[in-house]
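Section 5: illustrative case.
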């Protein structure tokens, strides 16, 4: 909430309740201002808003849990987040990156670490690494002989990741494969590693979600878990006016997974939506 609005308009006793909603390219920013006090019309005052919108619609996504207002979200973090210092530092550094919104939310990293512990996981795959937050969160939760095969195409993004993995002392657990993830997953299958992984996390280009899922389903063992990120896509999946290729792919993926009896599923509304699929 802005702090420099005229007190006359918003006396301290009766603070305005301003809510903002995420907006994508070509959409209007919506602001709801409740309890405007006094008789001065709001148009007599200048309210400055800074709006940051990514130029690439496929990169617009939330990296904090959606559907919660800031007050409740901050409360959630204040009573539950136990983020190791090294992850905090990586999050701070990534915050200045032009694609910072691609990073998973800290409460999601913590949730994934819990899942990995719950599974007793040793071997894991990650599709989409960026600056390395999710891989680091998982690697820290793995036993000393644990492994993350991390797939990404960007040497630039993952140079930051490598630096933090090293600082955290988990670089030995993370095997970064710089290639299109479909090639890496096919190579793992060709090397007869089907059924040998405990956990897979899918968080790369949305158009390939179904193809990543099918490969990961082969690669994880029975009782292994696949976690798929951004399945709520900032709410855009539920808006039929939005028909870009990423949104359509996630919508199709969600639809097909709902009917996929090879797995037990749950869609968790954490961060930008995380679907869990347990292999039968
Ligand atoms: C949403 S970000 C991943 C965020 C990451 N999980 C984290 O916690 O910060 C998506 C990543 O997928 C990578 N990517 C995009 N297309 C890819 C492809 N075909 N194969 C492998 N990686 C790809 C991008 O370079 C980007 O780093």
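Designed sequence:
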């Amino acid at each position: 909430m802005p702090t420099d609005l005229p007190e006359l308009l918003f006396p301290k006793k009766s603070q305005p309740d301003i809510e903002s909603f995420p907006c994508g390219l070509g959409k209007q920013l919506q602001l709801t201002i409740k309890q405007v006090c006094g008789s001065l019309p709001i148009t007599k005052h200048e309210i400055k808003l800074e709006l940051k919108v990514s130029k690439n619609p496929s990169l617009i996504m939330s990296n904090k849990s959606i559907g919660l207002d800031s007050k409740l979200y901050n409360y959630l973090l204040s009573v539950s987040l136990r983020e190791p210092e090294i992850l905090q530092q990586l999050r701070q550094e990534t915050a200045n990156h032009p694609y910072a919104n691609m990073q998973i939310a800290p409460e999601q990293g913590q949730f994934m670490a819990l899942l990995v512990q719950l599974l007793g996981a040793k071997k894991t795959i990650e599709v989409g690494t960026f600056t390395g937050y999710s891989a680091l969160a998982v690697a820290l939760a793995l036993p000393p002989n644990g492994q993350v095969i991390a797939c990404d195409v960007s040497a630039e993004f993952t140079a930051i990741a490598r630096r933090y993995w090293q600082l955290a002392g988990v670089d030995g657990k993370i095997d970064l494969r710089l290639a299109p993830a479909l090639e890496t997953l096919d190579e793992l299958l060709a090397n007869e590693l089907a059924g040998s992984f405990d956990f897979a996390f899918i968080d790369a280009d949305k158009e390939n979600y179904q193809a990543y899922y099918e490969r990961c389903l082969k690669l994880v063992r029975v009782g292994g878990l696949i976690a798929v990120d951004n399945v709520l896509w900032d709410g855009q999946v539920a808006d039929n006016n939005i028909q870009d290729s990423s949104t359509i792919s996630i919508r199709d993926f969600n639809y097909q997974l709902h009917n996929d009896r090879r797995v037990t599923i749950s869609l968790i509304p954490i961060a930008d939506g995380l679907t869990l699929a347990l292999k039968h």
